[in-house]
Amino acid sequence: MNLILFGPPGAGKGTQAKRLVEQRGMVQLSTGDMLRAAIASGSELGLKVKDVLDRGDLVTDEIVIALIEERLPEAEAAGGAIFDGFPRTVAQAEALDVMLAKRGQKIDSVVRLEVDEPALIERITKRYAEQGRSDDNPETFVNRLARYNADTAPLLPYYRAQDKLVAVDGMGTVEAVAGAIDTALSVVA
Ligand code: AMP
């Protein structure tokens, strides 16, 4: 099964993806984690994308599509992928559909975590204080939210048209949200 965890920054995608990995043995494919690892390693890619992440902008479709493509065989071997933070543009979603189709696969479900903006800001303010992730600082976070609304939210009609979108209330505790995701997925496969 291939899933997309969808939602704005701070919605809880990473937390829920990690739990699904533990429970179902799937592979989490987080382009944000991959890009942060590239930056930490000082690779050519890392140097290229560092300023983009620091500003809260999106890196090019080409870069993230290539990162995902590289990891698809591993996800397939594990029985499926949980896409976290990818796709973020319609072009990425279209490329993902093509890459999966070439492998005889598809996206089975897109789980949308719904969290309102005041709650997102509260969560990210807390995460910034606790973890100091540089792109969680207030100015950058506002830009990340703007990018989500402008570039990523248009994916909702894309997946609604494919009848793959499932809404989950993301405002509760980690456990409550996990339960709601499990219920939503129980009808998928
Ligand atoms: P995340 O950890 O998913 O919030 O991603 C952190 C940052 O990495 C984002 O603010 C973007 O700068 C970049 N990024 C991650 N995934 C993508 C993507 N699919 N497309 C473009 N940029 C991305």
What's this model, at a glance?
This protein has helices at 13-24, 31-41, 44-55, 61-78, 90-102, 117-131, 138-152, 155-161, 174-186, and strands at residues 3-6, 27-30, 81-84, 109-114, 165-169.
Topology of helices and strands:
Layout: E1 3-6, H1 13-24, E2 27-30, H2 31-41, H3 44-55, H4 61-78, E3 81-84, H5 90-102, E4 109-114, H6 117-131, H7 138-152, H8 155-161, E5 165-169, H9 174-186
Parallel strand pairs: 1-3, 1-4, 2-3, 4-5
Helix pairs in contact: 2-3, 4-5
Bound molecules: adenosine monophosphate (AMP).
Task: Write up this protein.
The chain has 189 residues and is an alpha/beta fold. It contains 9 helices and 5 strands, in the order E-H-E-H-H-H-E-H-E-H-H-H-E-H. It is globular. The relative contact order is 0.19. Adenosine monophosphate binds at residues 9, 31-32, 35, 52-53, 56-59, 64, 85-88, 92, 135, 144. Residues 9, 31-32, 35, 52-53, 56-59, 64, 85-88, 92, 135, 144 line the site of adenosine monophosphate.
